[in-house]
């Protein structure tokens, strides 16, 4: 196990959502009309409900029994039955959510026999409930009672549940997790997991047994149809304005991205801007754009698709914590202070304001929030999370002597209580500290970062005076209280650290010389946050318009030539050259010419103007979108073993470069630039700007488009066309958990006009249009299946095995194979032949709707010359089990493995500006430019770094990105990962198939751990950097994870 994944403050043990039945105690709640529940009696959970017993001795339990007896009488009367022609059944209703305060149950139930369709008379559910405390402090509840059902209801197959409105007519609702019926000989569970609202009328819930349409017991066929019809809505109702409790699934274009005065074109249903559909929210349009929700209101979602209480609370808390941390980071940056703690907050704020005012009004120096000062300034975002801040600094960027004048790194003097490199704290003996300071830079490199929150802040003297812990005879209590208070005020506690500072990203932690190395650049291409873009180079770059030529790369090819290596790869040999192509980003240049768009409008109100004054950059508005390509070489040692992947040439272009909008740019050659200390900074900047393209492409395409966005229509079609009884529905539902909710949140604050993406990425207001253009040009479902994806990119040999150490592919293929094996086994339980698949009417409608509505633009506008086969892999209906397995596994892979690989490494790779800047603010220098001269002539060290930082994200942008990606990289406590059972399966054989898959996932954890421990796997274990970098194992496809930012764990679905 990766121990760092369990570090304090970064993750917490994930508590699995417990069913009410698993709670340890219960209390009886009486529900009053229009009132909150009142606890009446607490009993140990598990006390069986006694139908007519005298076991409960309290008045309350006597009332309960009396009411139950009354209900039995009622039920018997309602049925007109006698005990002779009726059977007594017990029923239980469970809920994992707290009771609402809308009074009693007022639930009406009818039981339907599966085969005959005979319905029981309607019976009332009593207004009593057992409250079931849950681990998160909330309560679930259960209700239970007894009924007499006609004898000819032998096999209950469905239950109709109706919620009555409150007496004044107001809408009422209950969340029900499951309903159970038990008689002497059998037990029937009806999975519900739904909000039952009085607006819904009668809702049907089927027993957990899965049935294809053709196998559905006769008594339930009509209910199956009725249920789907309700979800589909009618031609009229699906376009109606949505009420909160509506549960209609329909499609809408992305016509809600505009915000106020910031107008963005709608995405979807045009040839120029095709896009997948989202769930229809129907707030009404002004012109052709959907109006925003009223202030304070969230965008509508069906109740059953909303985050659970726990997830919603965690998401909101995480969001608020991120905002606070970002704010403190900005304050500290403005004040230029490195220590962040409550005790320094007010002075920092004051100093920051004064510095900013002086800089902006008097123009005596550059405003502190315009740029980071140097690399150290960037890394200071994480300082207090480490006991050894300077151990995070890259020593190789600070050589003692270099060819450039002024290159000598300023050597810090050791204070009495702090070493120069920060690797000791006040508890370290002084003589040891002096010894440590005397080590050369090189000797200091292997020193590991100390305890995460072990650093002392302030001096021992200050601490002693405050805590009395140095005084003889000080009481333990005083010592504890005093120390704790002191630690809190000085920021030396995990909670304050989490609030005031960002955790060290793992890409930097204990590997100060890794992030800026060429080897790390290459390693991230196959094991980083965006490992799904790299391709084998099987043709010379000029054939696809690139300016990269032999002379740019030959110095790094260990005696080979590009021409030979490309020929060998083209002939089927092992590729040694790879490339990453982000030329598609140049599409933004034409968009900007056609439609100059703003990111911000002028702030209104005094607060908006004030924030604009302090946070707005003096060069605001400048964001330069580059396009780029990189060629990478797979290095080998003397024995011919692969030892790492390095970039050998980077080609960059931007809109303002001389000449017409180019199809090629300037080439930055590693061998030519990095050999000379005066030009090494150019190579470093070229890599950083290329990584900004990588970061943009990752966020807009690999992450948002290829998972969040494309999956939503599959889910809408599933709800509309495939019954909850269908085995495919039960199999796939976990793979869509929370997806429409997180996508709704994204539309509200990330991808909307003026949202986080526009403000923090170079693509700015064109970002979403870019994702639309790439969707129209490149997205094919057929090649989203991982094996096909790898094959298309030339990353695997004829047997489908990766050519090189490619952790994303190797681990991903294991997940893929386990998924397909499980799906095959599961689906064949229900589909006995390919004809069964071909004749499945619900499946047919689902697939047709996905193709013609949810993803209809690509074919409708003729964007796929290869037709359906190119886009979907085959034409027409799904006609075999094998085809169905492929389709469903592709969807499941995108929602689970692919998403996990590109999502949960975001914080640890992309929060760090120097590793993956989201924003580029100036064009990349080219030879002859003034900017080239300025950079190459600057002294190595802080001055050169200061110039580099003028190209990259400013502190406010960096803090915003760090807070956002931290939130997005967090596993919730109720996350469902692939090593957990699918809760929607009931059929025994289906559960066995699922259990086998779980076992596969557990074995995969061990396999991945072993791969990560194998030193031959250069992309997981070590870099060609000697022993100076701690290995960064590939953990992103380890199936399980605790809650928190763990850089591991594969949830079933896109849920964050
Ligand atoms: Fe995500």
From TrEMBL:
Residues 1-51, 450-478 are annotated as: Disordered. Residues 210-1056 form the Lipoxygenase domain. Pfam families: Lipoxygenase. Coiled coil: none annotated. The keyword Lipid metabolism applies. The keyword GTP-binding does not apply. One of its GO terms (biological process) is oxylipin biosynthetic process. Residues 36-48 have a biased composition (Low complexity). Its EC number is 1.13.11.-. Residues 466-478 have a biased composition (Basic and acidic residues). Keywords: Dioxygenase, Fatty acid biosynthesis, Fatty acid metabolism, Iron, Lipid biosynthesis, Lipid metabolism, Metal-binding, Oxidoreductase, Oxylipin biosynthesis. Pathway: Lipid metabolism; oxylipin biosynthesis. One of its GO terms (molecular function) is metal ion binding. Its cofactor is Fe cation. Belongs to the lipoxygenase family. Plant lipoxygenase may be involved in a number of diverse aspects of plant physiology including growth and development, pest resistance, and senescence or responses to wounding. This is Lipoxygenase. It comes from Volvox carteri f. nagariensis.
């Amino acid at each position: 196990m990766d121990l760092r994944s369990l570090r304090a403050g970064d993750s917490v043990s994930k508590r699995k959502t417990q069913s009410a039945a698993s709670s340890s105690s219960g209390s009886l709640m009486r529900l009053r009309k229009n009132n909150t529940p009142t606890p009446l009696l607490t009993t140990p959970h598990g006390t069986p409900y006694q139908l007519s017993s005298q076991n409960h001795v309290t008045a309350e339990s006597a009332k309960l029994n009396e009411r139950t007896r009354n209900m039995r009488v009622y039920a018997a009367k309602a049925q007109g039955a006698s005990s002779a022609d009726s059977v007594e059944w017990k029923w239980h209703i469970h809920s994992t959510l707290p009771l609402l305060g809308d009074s009693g149950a007022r639930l009406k139930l009818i039981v339907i026999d599966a085969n005959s369709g005979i319905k029981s008379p309607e019976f009332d559910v009593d207004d009593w409930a057992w409250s079931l405390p849950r681990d998160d402090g909330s309560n679930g509840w259960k209700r239970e009672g007894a009924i007499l059902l006609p004898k000819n209801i032998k096999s209950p197959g469905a239950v109709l549940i109706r919620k009555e409105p409150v007496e004044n007519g107001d809408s009422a609702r209950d969340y029900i997790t499951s309903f159970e019926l038990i008689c002497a000989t059998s037990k029937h569970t009806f999975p519900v997991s739904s909000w039952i609202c009085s607006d819904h009328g009668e809702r049907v819930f089927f027993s957990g047994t899965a049935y294809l349409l053709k196998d559905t017991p006769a008594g339930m066929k009509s209910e199956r149809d009725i249920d789907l019809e309700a979800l589909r809505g009618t031609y009229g109702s699906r376009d109606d304005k949505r009420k909160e409790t509506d549960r209609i699934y329909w499609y809408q274009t992305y016509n809600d991205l505009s915000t106020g005065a910031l107008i963005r074109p709608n995405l979807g249903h045009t040839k120029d801007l095709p896009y997948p559909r989202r769930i229809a929210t129907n707030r009404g349009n002004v012109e052709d754009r959907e109006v925003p929700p009223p202030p304070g209101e969230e965008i509508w979602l069906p109740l059953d698709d909303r985050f659970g209480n726990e997830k919603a609370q965690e998401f909101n808390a995480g969001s608020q914590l991120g905002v606070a941390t970002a704010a403190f980071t900005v304050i500290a940056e403005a004040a230029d202070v490195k220590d962040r703690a409550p005790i320094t907050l007010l002075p920092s704020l004051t100093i920051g304001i004064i510095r900013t005012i002086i800089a902006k009004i008097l123009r005596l120096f550059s405003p502190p929030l315009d740029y980071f000062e140097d690399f150290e300034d960037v890394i200071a975002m994480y300082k207090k999370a480490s006991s050894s801040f300077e151990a995070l600094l890259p020593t190789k960027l600070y050589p003692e002597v270099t060819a450039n004048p002024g290159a000598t790194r300023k050597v810090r003097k050791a204070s009495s209580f702090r070493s120069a490199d920060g690797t000791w704290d006040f508890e370290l003996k002084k003589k040891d500290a002096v010894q440590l300071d005397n080590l050369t830079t090189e000797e200091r490199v292997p020193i590991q970062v100390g305890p995460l929150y072990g650093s002392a802040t302030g001096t021992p003297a200050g601490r002693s005076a405050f805590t009395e812990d140095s005084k003889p005879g000080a009481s333990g209590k005083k010592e504890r209280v005093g120390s704790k208070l002191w630690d809190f005020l000085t920021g030396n506690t995990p909670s304050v650290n989490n609030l005031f500072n960002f955790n060290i990203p793992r890409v930097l932690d204990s590997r100060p010389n890794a992030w800026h190395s060429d080897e790390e650049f290459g390693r991230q291409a196959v094991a980083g946050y965006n490992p799904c873009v790299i391709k084998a180079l099987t043709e010379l770059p000029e054939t696809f318009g690139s300016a990269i030529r032999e002379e740019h790369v030959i110095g790094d090819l260990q005696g080979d030539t590009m021409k030979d290596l490309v020929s060998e790869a083209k002939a089927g040999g092992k590729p040694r050259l790879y490339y990453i192509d982000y030329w598609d980003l140049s599409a933004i240049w034409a968009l900007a010419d056609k439609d100059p768009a703003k990111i911000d409008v002028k702030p209104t109100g005094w607060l908006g103007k004030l924030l604009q004054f302090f946070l707005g950059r003096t060069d605001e508005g400048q964001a330069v979108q580059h396009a780029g390509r990189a060629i990478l070489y797979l290095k080998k040692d003397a024995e011919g073993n692969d030892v790492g992947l390095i970039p050998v040439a980077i080609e960059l272009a931007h809109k303002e470069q001389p000449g017409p909008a180019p199809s090629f740019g300037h080439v930055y050659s590693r061998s030519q630039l990095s050999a000379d200390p005066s030009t090494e900074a150019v190579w470093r900047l070229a890599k950083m700007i290329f990584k900004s393209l990588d970061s943009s492409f990752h966020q807009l395409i690999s992450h948002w488009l290829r998972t969040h966005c494309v999956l939503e229509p599959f889910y809408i079609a599933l709800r509309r066309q495939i019954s909850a009884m269908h085995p495919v529905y039960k199999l796939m539902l976990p793979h869509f958990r929370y997806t429409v909710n997180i996508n709704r949140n994204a539309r509200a604050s990330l991808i909307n006009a003026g949202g986080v993406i526009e403000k923090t990425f170079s693509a700015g207001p064109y970002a979403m249009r870019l994702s639309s253009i790439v969707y129209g040009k490149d997205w094919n479902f057929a090649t989203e299946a991982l094996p096909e994806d790898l094959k298309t990119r030339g990353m695997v040999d004829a047997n489908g095995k990766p050519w090189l150490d490619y952790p994303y592919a190797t681990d991903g293929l294991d997940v893929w194979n386990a998924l397909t094996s499980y799906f095959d086994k599961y689906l064949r339980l229900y589909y006995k032949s390919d004809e069964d698949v071909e004749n499945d009417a619900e499946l047919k409608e689902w697939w047709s709707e996905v193709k013609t509505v949810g993803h209809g633009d690509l074919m409708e506008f003729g964007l796929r010359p290869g037709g359906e086969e190119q886009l979907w892999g085959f034409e027409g209906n799904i006609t075999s089990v094998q085809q169905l397995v492929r389709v469903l596994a592709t969807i499941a892979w995108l929602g689970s493995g692919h998403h996990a690989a590109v999502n949960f490494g975001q914080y640890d790779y992309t929060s760090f500006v120097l590793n993956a800047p989201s924003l580029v603010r100036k064009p990349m220098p080219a030879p002859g430019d003034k900017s080239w001269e300025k950079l190459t002539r600057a002294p190595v060290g802080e001055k050169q770094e200061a110039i580099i930082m003028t190209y990259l994200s400013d502190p406010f942008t960096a803090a915003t990105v760090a807070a956002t990606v931290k939130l997005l990289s967090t596993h919730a406590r109720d996350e469902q990962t692939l090593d957990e059972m699918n809760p929607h399966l009931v059929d025994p054989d289906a559960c066995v198939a699922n259990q086998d898959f779980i076992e596969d996932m557990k074995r995969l954890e061990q396999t991945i751990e072993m791969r990560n421990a194998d030193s031959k796997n250069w992309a997981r274990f070590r870099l060609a950097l000697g022993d100076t970098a701690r290995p960064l194992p590939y953990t992103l496809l380890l199936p399980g994870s605790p809650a928190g930012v763990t850089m591991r764990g594969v949830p079933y679905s896109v849920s964050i």
